[in-house]
């Protein structure tokens, strides 16, 4: 993860990004400010990078069922020539429109 962070910082130095942290600190600014006062982030994280597919799947499912608005977009598999959206059979048709909006960006 540290190597990935350094690569991102080299390629996009203006991007607001921070390194490894617990999920609660990534999503709740007050927790992050308490634990990581030097973090450059403001507000809640809008992208979470996971070290592997298992961690990503666990985190995604936790966020999906606990989201107050019920809107999640992901997972997105990176590292291939273009990003790949992983579509699940249990998703509603409206979810696929959201995927299209992200992939068209």
TrEMBL record:
Keywords assigned by UniProt, alphabetized: Acyltransferase, Oxidoreductase, Transferase
Superkingdom as given in the UniProt entry: Bacteria
Span of domain Phosphate acetyl/butaryl transferase: 1-88
Molecular function in Gene Ontology: acyltransferase activity; malate dehydrogenase (decarboxylating) (NADP+) activity
EC number: 1.1.1.40
Pfam families: PTA_PTB (PF01515)
Protein name per its UniProtKB record: NADP-dependent malate dehydrogenase
Classification lineage: Bacteria, Pseudomonadati, Pseudomonadota, Gammaproteobacteria, Enterobacterales
């Amino acid at each position: 993860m540290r190597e990935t962070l350094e690569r991102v910082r080299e390629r996009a130095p203006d991007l607001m990004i921070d390194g490894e942290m617990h999920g609660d600190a990534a999503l709740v600014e007050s927790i992050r400010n308490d634990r990581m006062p030097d973090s450059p982030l403001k507000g809640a994280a809008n992208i979470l990078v996971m070290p592997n597919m298992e961690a990503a799947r666990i985190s995604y499912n936790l966020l999906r069922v606990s989201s107050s608005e019920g809107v999640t977009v992901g997972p997105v598999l990176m590292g291939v020539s273009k990003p790949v959206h992983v579509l699940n059979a249990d998703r509603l048709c409206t979810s696929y429109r959201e995927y299209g909006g992200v992939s068209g960006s």
